[in-house]
From TrEMBL:
Protein name per UniProt: Glucose-6-phosphate isomerase
Topological relation to the membrane, as annotated: Multi-pass membrane protein
Reactions listed under catalytic activity: alpha-D-glucose 6-phosphate = beta-D-fructose 6-phosphate
Lineage: Eukaryota, Viridiplantae, Chlorophyta, core chlorophytes, Trebouxiophyceae
Leading EC class: isomerase
Protein family according to the UniProt entry: Belongs to the GPI family.
Length: 609
């Protein structure tokens, strides 16, 4: 592609192979999945190698065109651009009830055109096709990346190595449905004959953050709330003993079901917490409690059995589901269906599926996740903004930003291209966030007058809950949303010195009260926050992150960067235990640098008291 110029992949393939849709209508295994969404003009077997993007995309004319375009954009001001009706129209999209306005990006329709050309050069469509068709795009682990199969319809055909994975997905879903109904209906009881109304979900990272985010978002949604009446769900993630104490505080073991969630079933923190909670249960209820009070979610059913849990009480998933993409697998479905019921969670899966279908079939120009991912590349790589603020104006989305942190930073924080060559640009961005308006009273000072941080505002038109005072509805939601609309304009428009002077602001305060403006944001508006729209939102971000990774030419689906620290922790653990049992301080001979030796000895000394 590097030598083909602007029209490269798409136009050339069309010339050589005819219109793309002709290839996709073949009755291939995955064809049945395409039926409802047809015609899907771009879904095709990629004629290019899967690693076609690579860091060398930087040498392409499309990349250079965007670099030159940066200079043009730097001459613009959002306060002027935002007056243009036609530009506004060109930078708003809507799909499946989700309204996305990116007119407050430092961008014009030309930017969009150039980004779409870059997407073409990076073979974005081919890579999306490869993802949905089960190619082993996680090349460093030789794995497919098939999380969309977790929410595919029962009759879909999606293959990994020639085998349709959908029947297995539905076998597990059926098992989850049956099990959670038995528990919720009181048919599955604890060892003392009491119904199990409390759930403790033990897991960390992708085995906790996503389910916790969904749990928080549904906990105030009326339908989900009514399904959860009389039940409790807590997550235990950290190996800090304080987290175990917090999670178990006030729980009645006789009524508690523990779900151990770990893809590998080897994660040190999770396994230690699992052993702790197993001891907590068996001390109170005897060894037979494990069979009734502990179940597992894992890809490693052998390790589950070794832990003492009957594989019959385990819910499997597959190595083609990345931990951070596993919310829609048994990882999220078991604890959340126990709490909210399977039908509620099925609507969540349907919402995800709706966004998957959109991502798969909508032209890139109108494709919400693709556009979000491309704008992300624009902000981070071309404009040099290394941070993104995720700002939901919805307390129920309190744990959205922490989940996106893992999803995005573990996926796209990479230093090399998919072929192992060092990247000539930085990938990924630092994601952080907090619900509005809380964040306004915390870090917004910096995003208004300090560093430029592209912000993603997420609002919801109808509140999950209303508050009444003496029979009158309190306007809290209106108040919240007024801020949701005001903040993006404050960031974009700013406030200049002349305006301040005209308002009579004393001269010495003018610089302090000036807002430079021209700060980018985008706004996403959902009609309401329920299980379905929550699924749409999550899938939107999953695919947005994959899009950026595809364009950067990296493998967004491995996470080797988390290994080194884990290995070093093993060495520290062994040495600390050795020093404790020998009652002798560590020295340089233990193989740590002088700083670590001093820190460890201080810990050994102070930790003994
Ligand atoms: O440390 C990172 C990680 O491997 C994540 O990718 C994963 O979500 C988490 O640990 C938990 O892993 P597991 O589900 O195997 O316990």
């Amino acid at each position: 592609w590097g030598h083909m110029g602007g029209l490269a992949g798409g136009a050339l393939a069309a010339l050589l192979l005819g219109p793309r849709w002709k290839q996709t209508t073949l009755p291939t295994a995955r064809g049945r999945w395409l039926v409802d969404a047809a015609p899907v003009p771009w879904l095709r077997s990629s004629p290019k190698p899967l690693d076609g993007g690579r860091g060398r995309l930087r040498d392409s004319p499309q990349w250079r065109a965007l670099q030159e375009h940066v200079q043009a954009i730097k001459q613009t001001q959002l306060k002027d651009l935002l007056q243009e009706e036609a530009r506004t129209d060109g930078l708003i999209r809507e799909a499946g009830g989700l309204y996305m306005d990116f007119s407050r990006q430092n961008a014009t329709p030309d930017t969009l055109k150039l980004l779409l050309e870059l997407a073409e050069a990076a073979d974005l469509r081919g890579k999306v096709d490869a993802l949905f068709s089960g190619k082993h795009i996680n090349s460093t682990e030789d794995r497919a990346v098939l999380h969309p199969a977790l929410r595919a319809p029962r009759d879909a055909v999606i293959e990994d190595a020639g085998k349709n994975v959908v029947p297995e997905v539905w076998a597990v879903l059926d098992k989850i449905k049956a099990f959670t109904e038995r528990v919720r209906g009181g048919e599955w009881k604890g060892v003392t004959g009491k119904p199990l109304t409390n759930v403790v979900s033990i897991g960390i990272g992708g085995s906790a953050l996503g389910p916790l985010f969904v749990h928080t978002a549904l906990s105030t949604e009326p339908e989900a709330m009514s399904q959860a009446a009389g039940r409790s769900l807590v997550f235990l993630a950290n190996v800090d003993p304080v987290d175990a104490v917090r999670a178990l505080h006030g729980l009645d073991a006789e009524r508690t079901l523990v779900v151990i969630v770990s893809k590998t079933f080897t994660t040190a923190e999770t396994m230690l917490n699992a052993r702790t909670v197993r001891a907590w249960l068996t001390e109170r209820l005897g060894p037979e409690a494990v069979a009734k009070h502990m179940v597992a979610v894992s890809t490693n059913l052998k390790a589950v059995a070794e832990f003492g849990i009957d594989p019959e009480n385990a819910f499997g998933f597959w190595d083609w589901v990345g931990g951070r993409f596993s919310v829609s697998s048994a990882v999220g479905m078991v604890p959340l269906s126990l709490h909210y019921s399977f039908p509620v969670m099925e609507r969540f899966l349907q919402g995800m599926r709706a966004m998957d279908d959109h991502f798969r079939s909508a032209p890139l120009h109108d494709n919400l996740p693709a556009l979000l991912g491309l704008l992300n590349v624009w902000n981070s790589t071309f404009l040099g903004h290394s941070t993104t603020a995720i700002l939901p104006y919805q307390q129920a989305l309190q744990h959205f930003a922490p989940h996106i942190q893992q999803l995005s930073m573990e996926s796209n924080g990479k230093g090399v291209a998919i072929d192992g060559t060092r990247l000539p640009y930085e990938t990924g961005e630092i994601d952080f966030g907090e619900p509005g308006t809380n964040g306004q009273h915390s870090f917004y000072q910096l995003i208004h007058q300090g560093r430029v941080i592209p912000a993603e505002f997420i609002g919801v038109a109808r509140s999950q809950q209303d508050v009444y005072l003496q029979g009158e509805k309190v306007s809290s939601h209106e108040e919240l949303m007024c801020n949701f609309f005001a903040q993006p304009d404050a960031l974009a428009m700013g406030k200049d010195a002349a305006t301040l002077r005209a308002e009579g602001v004393p001269e010495h305060l003018v610089p302090h009260k000036t807002f430079t403006g021209n700060r980018p944001s985008l706004s996403i508006l959902l009609p309401e926050l329920n299980a379905f729209t929550l699924g749409q939102l999550l899938s939107l971000y999953e695919h947005r992150i994959a899009t950026s990774g595809f364009v950067w030419g990296i493998n967004s689906f491995d996470q080797w960067g988390v290994e080194l620290g884990k290995v070093l922790a093993n060495k520290v653990r062994a040495k600390v235990q050795e020093a404790r049992s020998a009652n002798c301080p560590l020295s340089a001979a233990d193989g740590f640098c002088p700083s670590t030796v001093r820190l460890l000895n201080r810990f050994l000394q102070q930790g003994q008291t």
